[in-house]
Amino acid sequence: MAQFSINRTTTPTADAARKAALADPGFGRYYVDHMAVVDYIGGDGWQEPRIVPTTEWALHPASAVLHYGQEIFEGMKAYRHDDNSIWLFRPERNAARFVNSARRMGMAVLPEDIFLASVEELVKLEHEWVPVSENEQSLYLRPFMIASEPYLGVREANTYRYAVIATPAGPYYSEPVKLWITPNYTRAAPGGTGTAKCGGNYAASLIATEEAYANGCGQVLWLDGAERKWVEECGTMNIMFVTADGELLTPQLGTILPGVTRESILKLAADHDLKPVERMISIDEVLDGVGNGQIAEVFACGTAAVVTPITGFNSPDRGPQEVGDGTPGRKTREIRQHLVDIQYGRAEDKHGWMRRVL
Ligand SMILES: *Cc1c(COP(=O)(O)O)cnc(C)c1O
């Protein structure tokens, strides 16, 4: 496993200040004292992995990431169990996805063992920043990589910087949301970057989220870029449908982001008497099904919120529509609780998903 050298900050957060921060961490408000960094130099490869104080970076204004957007990221959490041990959930899936994202964006490929070590070593060092398990608090980890080479020509960069930063995440309330079916924008197209977890996908999606807010919705439901007919995913989460026939239905992989939460919930479906089905689902099938009860429940899933109930849709064509009685469904709540219980060590980890860090 890759060895990270540690250069400790001379100004660590005082215990009292950290306790105050953890009493009300919000999200993205506080950052732990250290970050993991590994640089890549073309021709020379990955440089010494190191953990250093969290500080600003000096970047040359010509750095490729600032102009052509070569950037990828991951999102994962460290969970404290009731016995004070600290765990990650399927981190090897994030490491593998990071490789795929890098390949798609023409970036240096970070070996998976370095990815795993970076996350584990940072969590070990900053273990005091992992909140207590009450109310689903966690330490959110953000591994990411940028093209750091100063060069204005358009080509794959020759130098990259990989880093992991971490921010405590406070109590999570998974508020139900309604989805806006935008007539104006798409997120991904065949051959595009839909399967890469890259910043550019988000930059291109923000305008549609504003449109969703303006139409009384909390998120966008993306349709496919070719026909604008097939359901893909929500803004930052994959989407699932519980049918009246006992299926757990979700769009197949292809242009969507292959979520770790999605993959995991499909594996839990049988425990909830649901049959997992991955296939193309048209927006008409969804809206008709919601109307006639064939689709009983809808939810979105991703690391941040785990499972978010979807209680309605709105679109210019068909107007507002509620799912069921407009409140979160029973299977949705059960599946969410099951997954959260595995992550916090309260339910049996039959699939061997949890990885102990400390
Ligand atoms: C990260 C992400 C998801 C969810 O993936 P998880 O691995 O479950 O967190 C879904 N859609 C998009 C666009 C994402 O960026």
TrEMBL record:
Enzyme Commission number(s): 2.6.1.42
Reaction equations catalysed: L-valine + 2-oxoglutarate = 3-methyl-2-oxobutanoate + L-glutamate; L-isoleucine + 2-oxoglutarate = (S)-3-methyl-2-oxopentanoate + L-glutamate; L-leucine + 2-oxoglutarate = 4-methyl-2-oxopentanoate + L-glutamate
Keywords from the UniProt entry: Amino-acid biosynthesis, Aminotransferase, Branched-chain amino acid biosynthesis, Pyridoxal phosphate, Transferase
A Pfam family reported for this protein in Swiss-Prot or TrEMBL: Aminotran_4
Keyword Membrane: no
Pathway(s) the chain acts in: Amino-acid biosynthesis; L-leucine biosynthesis; L-leucine from 3-methyl-2-oxobutanoate: step 4/4; Amino-acid biosynthesis; L-isoleucine biosynthesis; L-isoleucine from 2-oxobutanoate: step 4/4; Amino-acid biosynthesis; L-valine biosynthesis; L-valine from pyruvate: step 4/4
Cofactor(s) for this UniProt protein: pyridoxal 5'-phosphate
Top-level division of the source organism's lineage: Bacteria
Sample GO molecular function, one term: transaminase activity
InterPro entries, A to Z: Aminotrans_IV, Aminotransferase-like, B_amino_transII, BCAT-like_C, BCAT-like_N, BCAT_family
EC class name: transferase
Family matches, as PANTHER family: BRANCHED-CHAIN-AMINO-ACID AMINOTRANSFERASE, SUBGROUP IIII AMINOTRANSFERASE
UniProt family annotation: Belongs to the class-IV pyridoxal-phosphate-dependent aminotransferase family.
NCBIfam families: ilvE_II, PRK13357.1
Protein name per the record: branched-chain-amino-acid transaminase
Organism for this UniProt entry: Tessaracoccus lubricantis
